[in-house]
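ok, trying the design again with the full structure, not the truncated one.
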């Protein structure tokens, strides 16, 4: 029965909020609610006949990012038995101590995710998959000219590019107001709920579910310009790999905040290729996009390094479960 599945363990002489067994009924309810809310919010994009060009599409897509967090709260209060107590600790919101264990992964996640995107761009360029213009920044210059109606820009394009790159970590902080909605659900609630299966099954399943959750917009051509099964498979693969890294931050720190800011940094850096590409370059999002095949390879290398160095075995606050 549900209550026995959610039986708690003891950590440091006190009950842990994390279950020893997967609360499957709660997991099922969470998935249904998170997916259902996403489809409901994005439904106007399908019914308008204009897809991603629907007025207000950006707002709807941003709003749907809160669906997993809402699902986590509904399930925690009304479905999961016994209710996670204290809930802030279960979701990784609190406590924020030891501060070093939370703040350092948060900073590493924010800067590391931005670096991940940038490295992917240069790896793609090294293999001839995209042409960069690091002198004139011609693609970005064309974008500026189009936006300004052909009027001259008083600041050199190179200076604008440099300003944008330097501002990425700070601008990405704004994204955290949206990514908290997703991370509260995927890494805050779902990952620790699946953790009794073992570290890797929990990481892989939560990442794959996260990818499938994007179906309402991916099937309209979002991210990959592939409104089909290929686009959805690319999203699942990308989210699975990036989800492992976000999940590692969650497990390693015992907090959801590093994942929140890493996700925010990654989203904020998604347009880096547009700053550095040469005019006329038409890179395939499937290959060199932020979640394309080249970034897959980069993320796989990072995951391998973390795994070989034993980083996935360090999991404070998640009870006495051993990493498998």
């Amino acid at each position: 029965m549900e209550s026995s599945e959610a039986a708690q363990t003891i950590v440091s002489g006190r009950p842990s909020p994390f279950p020893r067994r997967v609360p499957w009924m709660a997991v099922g309810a969470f998935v249904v609610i998170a997916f259902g809310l996403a489809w409901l919010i994005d439904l106007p994009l399908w019914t308008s006949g204009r897809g991603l060009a629907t007025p207000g599409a950006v707002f709807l897509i941003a709003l749907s990012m809160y669906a997993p967090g809402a699902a986590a709260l509904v399930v925690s209060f009304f479905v999961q038995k016994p209710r996670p107590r204290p809930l802030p600790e279960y979701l990784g919101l609190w406590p924020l101590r030891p501060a070093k264990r939370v703040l350092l992964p948060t900073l590493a996640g924010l800067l590391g995710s931005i670096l991940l995107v940038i490295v992917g761009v240069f790896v793609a360029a090294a293999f001839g998959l995209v042409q960069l213009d690091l002198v004139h920044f011609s693609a970005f210059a064309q974008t500026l000219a189009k936006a300004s109606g052909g009027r001259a820009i008083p600041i050199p394009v190179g200076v604008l590019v440099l300003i944008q790159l330097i501002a990425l970590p700070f601008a990405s902080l704004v994204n955290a107001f949206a990514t908290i909605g997703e991370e509260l659900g995927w890494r805050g609630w779902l990952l620790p709920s699946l953790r009794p299966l073992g570290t890797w099954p929990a990481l892989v399943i939560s990442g794959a579910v996260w990818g499938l959750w994007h179906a309402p917009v991916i099937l309209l051509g979002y991210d990959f310009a592939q409104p089909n099964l290929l686009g959805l498979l690319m999203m699942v693969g990308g989210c699975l790999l990036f989800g492992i890294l976000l999940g590692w931050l969650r497990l390693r720190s015992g907090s959801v905040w590093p994942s929140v800011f890493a996700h925010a940094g990654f989203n904020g850096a998604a347009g880096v290729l547009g700053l550095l590409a040469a005019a006329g370059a038409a890179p395939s999002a499937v290959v060199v996009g932020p979640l394309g095949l080249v970034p897959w390879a980069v993320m796989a290398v990072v995951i391998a390094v973390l795994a070989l160095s034993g980083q996935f075995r360090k999991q404070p606050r998640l009870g006495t479960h051993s990493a498998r």
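Keeping the full-length input from now on. Residues 98-313 form one domain.
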